[in-house]
Amino acid sequence: MTGAITVLSHVPVTLLGPLLKRFPDVSVAQIPEQGQLSDGVRGDVLLTQAWGSENVADAIARGVRWVHAYGTGVNAFPFDALGAVPLTCSRGGSGIPIAEWVLAAMLAFEKRFPASFVREPAHWKYIELGGLYGRTLALVGFGGIAREIALRALPFGMRVRALRRSDGGGMAGVEIVRELSELLRNADHVVIAAPATPETRHLIGRDALAQLKRGVHLVNVSRGALIDQDALREALDDGRVACASLDVAEPEPPPAGHWLYAHPHVRLSPHISWNMPGALGMLLEPFLENLARWKSGKPLLERDLVDRARGY
C-alpha cells in the first residue's frame, strides 16, 4: 500500500511504543471506546479490543479497510459491524505466559502446593506427592496456546494428546485425536484451550465429565462458557474431578457468594494467566507483523484471520 497510513486505536497509545518505533511513518489516532467519533476522524486500520466496542461500526465507517483485535478470544466481538472488512486477532499471542501458568497449576496439583508446606514441627510428616512424568495430558483444542503448553509438557515426560478436528497442525510427540470422549479417557490432567463458540458452549458437561477417571485435574484457560459449572460442581463434590484450576469463569467475575470462591477443590484466578513481563508486547506483535505485510501489499497472515462463520 502506498501513501500515509492512519491507525485508529481503541488501545491506549501508551501501549503502542513498538508500533510507533517500528513504523514512524504510520499515524496513530487514539479514539474513545464509547460515543460517536468526531466528524474529522478518518483512518485506514482499526486496532481495537478483542470484544470490540460500542462504536466499532462508526470507526469502520471512517475509511477502515482492516480491523485487528488486540487479544485472542473474539467470541464477544460484534462481527455484524465489520461488513466486508477483514478481521485479524492476536491468536496465540498469550501462548507463552498461559502455558507457564498451566504448567505451574499442574505442578502445584501434583506436588500439593501449598498444602505440603509446614509451619510447625507437628506437621513435619511424610506426604505422598505426584509428578508430571508419565502422566497423560489431554488438551482440548490445539491452537497456539495449546501448542505452547505441549512444548513445555513434553520435556517433563508427559504423554500429550490433543483434540483437533481439522486436518494439519500436528507436532512431534503429540497424539492427535478426533473425538472428545477418546481424548478424556485415562487423562490425568485436562486443559481446556479451545475457542468459545456456540458449538463449544458447555462442551465439558455431564456427559464429558462422566468420561473422566476419578481424581483428574481440570484446567480452564479458555472461556468459562466451555464448562457447565453446575456439572463441574457435582464432579468436584463426588471426587471425579479432584481439582479444578480455573483462570476463567461464567460470568466474570462470579457474583459475591458464588460457590467457586469457597469450594475446597477449586483454584480460581481472575483471568490473569496471560500476564507476564512483556505480555502486552507479545499481544501486539501479530498486529505489527500484519501491518508490515499490509503496507507492502502482501495478504494478511492466514493464521491470524478470524473466520466469522466459525467465530474464531
What is the count of distinct domains? Answer: 2
Distance between the amino and carboxyl termini: 27 Å
Number of helices: 9
CATH class descriptor name of the largest domain: Alpha Beta
The tally of beta strands, per DSSP, is 12
Task: Name the strands of the widest sheet in spatial order.
Answer: 8-7-6-9-10-11-12
- The gross shape turns out to be elongated
The CATH topology name of the largest domain reads Rossmann fold
Any guess at the CATH architecture of the largest domain? 3-Layer(aba) Sandwich
Report the biggest beta sheet as strand number plus sense, adding barrel if it closes: 7 strands, parallel
Instruction: Give the helix proportion (percent range).
Output: 25-40%
- CA radius of gyration is 22 Å
Mean pLDDT: 95
Spans of at least 5 consecutive residues whose pLDDT stays below 50 are none
CATH superfamily of the largest domain: NAD(P)-binding Rossmann-like Domain
Strand content: 15-25%
H/E series: EHEEHEEHEHEEHEHEHEHEH
Description of the molecule:
With 312 residues, the chain is α/β, with parallel strands linked by helices. The protein folds into two domains: 5-93 and 278-304, NAD(P)-binding Rossmann-like Domain (Rossmann fold, 3-Layer(aba) Sandwich); 95-268, NAD(P)-binding Rossmann-like Domain (Rossmann fold). Helix content is 25%, strand content 18%. It has helices at 17-22, 56-60, 95-111, 144-153, 180-184, 206-210, 229-237, 259-262, 279-295, and strands at 5-9, 26-30, 45-49, 66-70, 87-89, 136-140, 159-163, 174-177, 189-192, 216-220, 241-246, 266-268. It has a seven-stranded parallel β-sheet with strand order 8-7-6-9-10-11-12. Strands 2-1-3-4-5 form a five-stranded parallel β-sheet. Helix 1 links the parallel strand 1 (5-9) and strand 2 (26-30). Helix 3 (95-111) crosses helix 4. The mean pLDDT is 95.
